[in-house]
Amino acid sequence: MDSDHEAYILLLLSDSNLPTGSFVASAGLESYVTHGFFTDLAPTAGQVTAPPPDKMVYTVNFLRDSLSSYARSALPFVLDAHVVVEDALKKPQAAPEDWLDSTLRRLVELDELYEATTLNHVARRASRNQGVALLTLFSKGFSEPQLPLHLHRPGPLAPQPEASAAKLADRLKLLVRREETHGHLPICWGVLTAALQLSSGADDSYPLFDAFSSYTQPERSQYLHLFLQARSLLSSSVRLNTIGPYAAQQLLLHAVRPVVDFEMWRCKRLTTASVTSQHSSPKTQDEDALLGPAMTWPLGEILAARHDLQHSRIFNS
Amino acid sequence: MAIHHIQPGHGRIVVHNDGYSNHFSELSSSYPLKLLSAGTPPRNVSMVYALTYGGGLASGDHTETVIEVHDGARLAMFSQGSTKVSKARPGHPRRSAPAKSNPEPAGTASQKLAVHVASGGAFFLLADPVTCFRDARYHRTQVVHLARDSSVVLLDWMTSGRKASSEEWEFTSYQSRVDVYVDGRRIAEENMLVEGPYSFCTAQEAAKGFHVSGGALRSRCERTKPYSCYATVILYGELVHETLRRLSVARHNASSPRLSWSMSSICEGRGCIVKIGAEETEDVRVWLRQALSELEGVLGVDVYRQAFR
């Protein structure tokens, strides 16, 4: 896929109208606000003169704390799922069925692990819903439409995702429908971006997304995932009326990028290898345990899991 | 029976039940770890205190305990006061054998616990919280293998530090990992990590990240306030069924401003994860004593009183 097409795909994926169901998820923000964490918790005597922080400040703080824990726990899964599919699509496919089965086995293993590491039932539910929505989006939204001939614009056609990639996504979706696996968001995101072959190589130029130029293919997938998580949080803020739409736009432009950049630096190299490779020696297991997915924000975890206990709520998570 | 050579800091507990009462077929430990059986529990319950000499973990300490619970026996494990982890001092002589691989940064105090609970048996880890001092590094791994009809309660909690001397969130790194398997299938993997902002990138990258984020990183104190004590309890099995039922009703009550808690069920409702955050350690202790009080019937009143004193 050339860089023009990749840029176009990126535009598509970052569209806020993308039907992924993320508009019903607030990733714990609603519960956080309901529990009173957007008001000054402990005004101390020394601070009385200072004005209380406004909602913008609380929003940015939530965004940073939430993204930092999410990056640490989900990015390793995005990376691994992306690499599994990317590698599988590169290999010559001598026995297509075996190839498909082994790739799926690996993805299901990752999915099972994400289920076991996500101990908060609200987050688990939201992640499953959004994951399967991505798979549906891929099979329904990225295949070529049946249009009357005169509507086809002459010129370069959008490259179709490879047939094998489409088959893989369909099989995964079938497993989710049969409840044989969960279909968690980070895994499905990795599958989707690898199947769409985001980028063709490191030496291409990306006029549209300059920030991406230093990233490798799976890293772009991770970066976009974090960005979308942040954007979704900000649109939840607007719907919760904690900040206005212009303020959300301001934050998206000025506050989100440094946060996403920073979390990328910290987390882009983390993998799930420690927890999946049961046969590795105890030595490597110990080493990797420090580099595997982890939960880093216990406060956010408690409040997010209390989501369903709110008397009224507009989000699902 | 051959006597195993025990490495420094290692311990082993094997409990059987002969149909009349529990007995230890093995209870051994080596400096700086000490495992003591104490108390007069009911016949099918055993109690073990896990202690370390000096009342805590020094820089580079490593303890490794293997526990087997057989024949429907019940084993409760306690500590004597909170586990205090002192400042990491790389290069200082260590008093225990290093972890086999020693992958942790120098000076990390680490603890490993591997538990196997056979069918019908139960294990209760009701130790006091871990308190890490300034510049301490602590890393704990707990792996629990259960059969479908065994039961477990794993309490894992930490405090922000020596709050009385206003040393809060000053430690370098705290990591606690708990893996629970039922019949070989992983049902929960909790990996909680509380550390300073830079631990997983190079200094150069950190500097760059610091630059782009405008030089204002969120401190752990800001991210966790107003709470300074966090606990996770993993419960599974028939013996905690009543506790689970009661907690799932109780969670609808408003949480107090001093304490918040949540509950998520796992393994098709046969177990759950409870997370608690509170301003003071004592708040959590009081809450736990009340929330887990059904265990009095399982362990006996005298044994249960040893926890949350």
TrEMBL record, chain A:
<protein>
    <recommendedName>
        <fullName>Urease accessory protein UreF</fullName>
    </recommendedName>
</protein>
<comment type="similarity">
    <text>Belongs to the UreF family.</text>
</comment>
<keyword id="KW-0143">Chaperone</keyword>
<dbReference type="Pfam" id="PF01730">
    <property type="entry name" value="UreF"/>
</dbReference>
<keyword id="KW-0996">Nickel insertion</keyword>
<dbReference type="GO" id="GO:0016151">
    <property type="term" value="F:nickel cation binding"/>
</dbReference>
<dbReference type="InterPro" id="IPR038277">
    <property type="entry name" value="UreF_sf"/>
</dbReference>
<dbReference type="InterPro" id="IPR002639">
    <property type="entry name" value="UreF"/>
</dbReference>
From TrEMBL, chain B:
<comment type="similarity">
    <text>Belongs to the UreD family.</text>
</comment>
<dbReference type="Pfam" id="PF01774">
    <property type="entry name" value="UreD"/>
</dbReference>
<protein>
    <recommendedName>
        <fullName>UreD-domain-containing protein</fullName>
    </recommendedName>
</protein>
<keyword id="KW-0143">Chaperone</keyword>
<dbReference type="GO" id="GO:0016151">
    <property type="term" value="F:nickel cation binding"/>
</dbReference>
<dbReference type="InterPro" id="IPR002669">
    <property type="entry name" value="UreD"/>
</dbReference>
<feature type="region of interest" description="Disordered">
    <location>
        <begin position="80"/>
        <end position="111"/>
    </location>
</feature>
<feature type="compositionally biased region" description="Basic residues">
    <location>
        <begin position="86"/>
        <end position="97"/>
    </location>
</feature>
